[in-house]
Amino acid sequence: MIYKIYPLLVFLLLSFGKDTKSTPELKKVTAKSFAKVEKITIDAKIESVYSALNPNNFKLPELRTFSEALKGFYLLKEKGLIHKDILTLIDFSLSSNTKRLWVIDLSTNTILFQSLVAHGRNTGEEFATAFSNINSSFKSSLGFYSTGEIYKGKHGSSLRLDGLEKGFNDNARERGVVMHGADYVSESFIREHKRLGRSQGCPALPIELTDEIIQTIKDKSCLFIYHPSRTFTMEEKLIS
Question: Residue 41: pLDDT above 80?
Answer without folding.
Answer: yes
